[in-house]
Design goal:
307 residues
């Protein structure tokens, strides 16, 4: 009985010592975790501070500019008799929408097909296409503008036109659409593919009629993100569209765009035109924020359905 009691006491002491060591290490882990969480929060706040500061300046100075005439009138040139006569940016708004529409017609079908092929195949050609898409995603946008200027404006002799600008923006949109499509297709459950193949459908039929509809929300999200990126790009359209002051949407005509309007007005000697820059920037900010917000909602709904 004495031996059993002694063993019990030893075991109890050892258990108490182990619990004390575990509690000490647990306290140390909690302290380290709180420290790193606080540091992460500080870094996150420091990263967001310039964004919120810039957004606040744009909103504060841009809201007074947003009037009905801002969206409906063409730009006017101020003079000594009417220094605040700036008109609106309706031509630039229409031009930006036309460029994004033309670029989407060019890039969406190609990007979706390439993304499906890359996701459904693991051969060398698919690997090369994936590498090209990743490389294009990191390329400076000004290179796309120079490429479109050399090919479309000079070699094919289209000159400054909506076609040239849409081509440059379409090339920029392609890698975003390809990557988004690949991720969306890969997230489709393998059981759906196997069910379609088990019913006797061919692989391309399964991809087009089963996999593609299931991946549609993710593809739509990628398309919206690509459009929001394209509408705010200045370098590609600076070399390609000409910046016409007329309201037109024909592919072969010179058009204007919101980034070009910002570039031109910021160099003006008239304070009224420089003030209008903040209104144009606010319009772009609202569009990009809305596009990203919509894409997040679509993606969250897709994730809830797949759970």
């Amino acid at each position: 009985m004495t031996t059993d009691f002694t063993n019990f006491s030893l075991n109890e002491n050892l258990r108490t010592e182990i619990l004390d060591i575990a509690a000490k290490h647990r306290r140390n882990r909690i302290v380290r975790s709180k420290i790193f969480l606080a540091l992460s929060g500080i870094c996150f706040a420091l990263a967001l501070t310039p964004l919120f500061a810039l957004s606040w300046i744009i909103v504060q100075k841009g809201l007074p500019v947003l009037k009905l005439s801002f969206f409906t009138q063409m730009p006017l040139q101020p003079n000594l008799m009417a220094p605040n006569q700036v008109g609106g940016v309706s031509g630039a708004i229409i031009g930006s929408l036309v460029l994004v529409a033309y670029a989407s017609i060019f890039s969406l079908p190609i990007g979706i097909l390439v993304g499906i092929y890359v996701a459904e195949n693991e051969n060398k050609f698919a690997a090369v296409m994936r590498l090209i898409s990743q490389t294009m995603a990191g390329a400076p946008s000004i290179l796309m503008g120079l490429f479109a200027f050399t090919l479309i404006c000079q070699r094919l002799q289209f000159g400054y036109s909506a076609v040239a600008g849409a081509f440059a923006l379409g090339v920029l949109m392609l890698p975003v659409i390809v990557v988004a499509t690949e991720i969306a297709v890969r997230n489709v459950p393998q059981t759906l593919r196997e069910a379609g193949l088990a019913l006797g459908a061919r692989s391309h039929k399964v991809s087009l009629r089963i996999v593609l509809p299931s991946a549609a929300p993710g593809i739509l999200t990628g398309a919206v993100l690509a459009m929001s990126r394209a509408i705010g790009e200045a370098a590609p359209v600076l070399f390609t569209i000409g910046g016409s002051s007329f309201l037109t949407w024909k592919p072969g005509d010179q058009v204007n765009a919101l980034p070009i309007a910002i570039f031109n007005n910021s160099r003006s000697q008239w304070p009224s035109q420089r003030q209008e820059v903040f209104g144009i920037a606010l319009v772009l900010l609202i569009f990009v924020f809305s596009a990203n917000f919509i894409s997040k909602i679509v993606m969250s709904r897709q994730q809830k359905k797949t759970r």
